[in-house]
Design goal:
This protein has 362 residues and is an alpha/beta fold. Helix content is 34%, strand content 22%. The chain binds uridine-5'-diphosphate.
Length: 362
């Protein structure tokens, strides 16, 4: 059998591209993934205690893009969920992103309005130009003390790299608020797929024109079985590392089931201090599941292991540029998703990028 397209990767990028090509173009697609499951890093499953958990750490869906939300709504029903994160410093809990409540609690202040909070931050924040690093952007937003407490150590702990060596968009994802809004995201659409991500991706791939082969290396599929390629993996792997390997950071997750209904007050607690782990997630808060036991996961940074987050430094971006120009010369290969962009995308951004790529190309 000859497929019109082979897609390397059965995560969100691969599944969205496959669905569009199969449904809109009515072409035959083979999706391969070297892992033994679909869903990429968003994969979730029910553990041996009956709790729905995210295999690669918490993935929270949020988007401002109505077309992304409408598109995915064809493949899932939703559960309203607005994510909140707590940062625990010396045993005390503070809302993160930094907001009026964070500042009042930390410094024993009584800032009463957004206006007063804004004024407070204007007095303490830096004024660095040009902004070239994650340190610069956070100093400009919150000033030195809040930066050190909430961002500097935490970032070093998880990236094994000082924020001054990381591009602004790494920490820049975390905004600052003048009001009491404790939500992690302010997007219009904040929902979790009611039956989980795996179910959603399964529904995307459930199409007579799509075949999925797991535990299959893209490189091992003979070119005579397909006409064109869509590649969603790391771009250096596609080019066999000719310009060097792009650096990523990895994570180690330790899951624990506790024989109690609730382990902690919040879905995610960040630990910017000396604890060996940097965050603990309790999935039941995210999924809304009811059960008399609960599963949590402690997340540790890891230098070794699977590649999760692109490590964007001046040096790695130089290497990435070389791969980009090589990719531009390949007319019959489409690169899609976070890995080929060497970017730190969440699910909403991946889906938006793939829908745009599809309309641009076809
Ligand atoms: N970050 C931080 N302190 C926090 C939360 C985040 O310093 O309490 C920094 C950290 O460098 C992280 C980045 O901001 O990599 C982006 O955070 P986000 O929550 O988006 O990371 P993710 O959950 O995607 O790993």
């Amino acid at each position: 059998m000859k497929y019109d397209y082979i897609i390397a990767g059965a995560g969100f990028a691969g599944a969205v591209m496959a669905e569009r090509i199969a449904s809109v173009l009515n072409k035959k697609v083979l999706v391969v993934d070297k892992r033994n499951h679909i869903g990429g890093n968003a994969h979730d499953y029910t553990d041996e205690n009956g709790i729905l958990v995210h295999k690669y750490g918490p993935h929270i869906f949020h988007t401002n893009d109505k077309s992304v939300f409408d598109y995915l709504s064809n493949f899932t029903t939703w559960r309203k969920y607005e994510h909140k994160v707590i940062s625990r410093i010396e045993g005390k809990d503070y809302p993160i992103p930094v907001n009026r409540i964070t500042i009042n609690k930390l410094y024993g202040l009584e800032l009463k309005s957004g206006e007063e909070t804004k004024k407070y931050l204007e007095n303490v924040k830096s004024n660095i130009h040009p902004v070239v690093s994650s340190e610069d952007i956070m100093l400009n937003r919150v000033g030195s003390d809040l930066y050190v407490k909430f961002f500097e150590k935490f970032t070093e702990k998880i990236w094994f790299e000082h924020p001054r060596n990381l591009t602004p968009n790494v920490c820049g994802r975390i905004n600052v608020r003048y009001n009491d809004d404790c939500r992690y995201f302010t997007d219009d659409y904040q929902y979790m797929p009611e039956k989980g991500y795996n179910n959603l991706v399964q529904n995307l791939l459930d199409n007579k024109n799509i075949d999925v082969r797991l535990e299959t290396e893209f490189e091992k599929v003979k070119p005579e079985h397909y006409a064109s390629i869509i590649y969603t993996g790391p771009i250096d792997s596609y080019f066999k590392n000719i310009f060097g390997r792009l650096p990523y950071r990895s994570i180690k997750l330790v899951f624990e089931n506790h024989r109690k209904e609730i382990f902690q007050d919040n879905s995610v607690i960040n630990f910017p201090g000396n604890e060996p782990y940097y965050r603990i997630t309790e999935f039941k808060h995210i999924t809304g599941q009811k059960s008399d036991s609960t599963t949590i996961c402690r997340e540790f940074a890891s230098k070794e292991g699977e590649r999760f987050y692109p490590r964007r430094t001046a040096e790695s971006l130089e290497i990435y540029k070389k791969y980009m120009s090589a990719a531009h010369n390949l007319k019959d290969v489409i690169f899609a998703g976070m890995h080929p962009s060497f970017q730190y995308y969440d699910i909403g951004q991946v889906v938006a990028q793939c829908l745009n790529e599809f309309s641009k190309r076809f």
